[in-house]
Design goal:
Layout: E1 4-9, H1 13-24, E2 29-32, E3 44-47, E4 50-53, H2 70-77, E5 84-86, E6 89-95, E7 99-104, H3 107-117, H4 122-139, H5 150-159, H6 161-170, H7 175-182, H8 186-200, H9 209-221, E8 225-227, H10 232-244, E9 248-250, E10 255-261, E11 264-270, E12 275-283, H11 287-293, H12 302-310, E13 311-313, E14 316-325, E15 336-339, E16 353-356, E17 370-379, H13 389-408, E18 418-424, H14 426-433, E19 442-444, E20 464-466, H15 477-494
Parallel strand pairs: 1-2, 1-12, 2-9, 6-15, 12-20
Antiparallel strand pairs: 3-4, 5-8, 6-7, 10-11, 11-12, 13-19, 14-17, 14-18, 15-16, 16-17
Helix pairs in contact: 1-10, 1-15, 4-6, 4-7, 4-9, 5-6, 7-8
Bound molecules: flavin-adenine dinucleotide.
């Protein structure tokens, strides 16, 4: 006997968007979250008057127009809204050879910065970024739902034939293929690599053109908008909206096993021994966690073995959550920075540094006269394994010290202005986010054809669905919201709603 129509394992943004979309259709949903609060990688924690974002802070999807503003839409489906603060500059890049550039919200102002640095490539720059707009305009003209639901595909094709054909053309392409059509300057091509790497964590040749079309255009269209009160508010509001319309969410409810009978998912078993049953089970855990940990080994579908050959786990991060005196940021008004000293280190262990300073947009996240800096750099689990507690603590302090030294070049006085520091490693990300090896998400193990091999929400196990960053279209809050809309749509059709 099913107690629920749908059980969602995990309350990351992917899981919450699925749950809220289903509940809004009158479907009985239960969300089971292993942690104390919702949000996963888009959660938060508080220390000594600071409210830190766990991960995401450069937020797409809060625009007011078009169809790609999926966070705005997800909240509104459960009668919630959020106040957001527009960010005038998406990223301030500090790159090798004094390549210092800002991605302004204003598209032409951004292009002008690039033209000034690469005047001989003016035409190529414009053609490349304009081609990204073509992808975005196709996406932004149609309702974004499940691409594995034939009724929707037929409807959308008749409504927007040109957009659909446009997207089909770009689906198998990577950014590198398109960039090299227009651009020859090696330094500019490196810059395009970094433009991709900073959200896809792979260079342009491995980054799908569909995702780039979204990111490179929406930042100038809907823009980057920071949620007032911190990123954690998004998940809090979705969870609140879910409960208000009759959905349930249980915290400290870690699913240990997905119960499968005759190759059909029928329920879940929690670590505390409780069992819940439903017609459909959705996993918001990564595919590795879902198929290697939550189901019996001999039940792992062949499709998942193939997927694991195509995609590997990206590294996790070394994260510094800092509280600093306000004067440290006197000369740096931008919220997001990317720092790299040598191109060869783009993908290296603790190579590229990402910096986010949300208090420049929302001062309420820190005590008066102080700011938050979240600085993080890719780091893999291997670097942090097989250490005694003492060695681990020492290595953390050492790595933090080195990162602060590098940050000092952009933020002079950082070390002396430090008021608070919390160091996170891949082990921290694994522990608190429940993600295998603390991974940021799947990345291509080899050069793939764009997004063609990224799976949608159904799996080879009947009534088991996946949602979140290891499903189409990948990482990022707006992307996993897309995955949530698709998953809920597919399930609603399968339930006959
Ligand atoms: C440091 C960092 C910076 C980032 N910056 C940005 C950014 O600026 N902009 C952006 O858009 N994106 C950013 N991202 C990426 C973005 O945060 C993620 O892609 C997105 O939040 C993933 O959402 P999700 O729904 O797939 O899963 P997750 O956020 O991983 O959520 C999954 C949830 O499921 C729960 N769970 C897992 N297993 C179980 C189980 N067995 N039982 C019960 N519950 C379980 C987890 O506790 C978690 O709450 C960043 C990520 C990181 C780590």
């Amino acid at each position: 006997m099913s107690q629920y129509d749908v059980i969602v394992i995990g309350s990351g943004i992917g899981g919450l968007v699925t749950a809220t979309q289903l509940a809004a259709k009158g479907i009985k949903v239960l969300v089971l979250e292993s942690y104390l609060i919702p949000g996963g990688s888009a959660g938060y924690f508080e220390r000594e008057g600071y409210r830190f974002d766990v991960g995401a802070s450069m937020i797409f999807g809060f625009g007011e127009k078009g169809t790609t503003n999926l966070l705005t839409r997800a909240l509104s489906a459960v009668n919630m809204t959020m106040e957001t603060i527009p960010d005038p500059v998406q990223i301030h890049y500090h790159l090798p050879n004094k390549l210092d550039l800002k991605v302004h919200r204003d598209y032409n102002k951004f292009l002008q910065e690039l033209y000034n640095r690469f005047p001989e490539e003016k035409k190529g720059i414009k053609s490349f970024y304009d081609e990204c707009w073509q992808v975005f305009n196709c996406l932004n003209s149609m309702e974004l739902l499940s691409l594995e639901e034939i009724g929707y595909l037929t409807r959308v094709f008749f409504q927007h034939p040109l957009s659909c054909l446009g997207l089909l053309k770009y689906l198998p392409l990577n950014v590198g293929d398109v960039a090299r059509k227009y651009i020859k300057n090696p330094e500019l091509l490196k810059f395009i690599d970094m433009e991709c790497y900073c959200w896809s964590v792979v260079p342009a040749d491995f980054t799908p053109m569909i995702n780039a079309g979204m990111v490179f255009s929406d930042r100038h269209y809907g823009g980057i908008n920071y949620p007032k009160g911190g990123v954690g508010k998004i998940a809090e509001k979705l969870a609140e909206g879910l409960e208000k319309i009759g959905g349930e969410i249980h915290y400290q409810a870690r699913v240990k096993e997905i119960i499968i009978k005759n190759n059909q998912a029928i329920g879940v078993k929690l670590a505390d021994g409780n069992e819940y049953f439903a017609q459909k089970i959705v996993s918001n855990a990564t595919r590795w966690d879902t198929f290697d940990k939550l189901i019996e080994k001999n039940k792992k579908p062949k499709a998942e073995i193939k997927w694991q050959k195509n995609y590997r786990q990206s590294p996790s991060f070394l994260s510094l959550h800092l509280g600093v005196e306000a004067q440290v940021l006197a000369n740096n008004p931008e919220c997001h920075h990317i720092i790299l000293e040598k191109w060869n280190n783009l993908e290296a262990e603790q190579g590229t540094i990402f910096v986010s300073i949300p208090t420049l947009l929302d001062p309420s996240l820190a005590p008066n006269g102080y700011h938050i800096i979240h600085a993080f750099s890719p780091s893999s689990m291997e670097y942090w394994e097989n250490l005694s507690t003492q060695q681990y603590e020492y290595k953390k302090e050492e790595a933090a010290g080195y990162l602060i030294q590098r940050l000092e070049k952009i933020f002079p006085g950082l070390d002396t202005g430090l008021d608070y520091m919390e160091i996170g490693t891949p082990r921290t990300h694994r522990r608190f986010l429940g993600r295998i090896n603390g991974t940021y998400g799947p990345i291509p193990a080899k050069r793939l054809k764009g997004l063609l091999s990224m799976p949608f929400n159904r799996t080879a196990i009947k009534n088991l669905y996946c949602v979140g960053d290891s499903t189409f279209p990948g990482q990022g809050l707006n992307a996993v919201a897309f995955s949530g809309f698709s998953c809920a749509h597919r399930i609603a059709v399968d339930l006959g709603c």
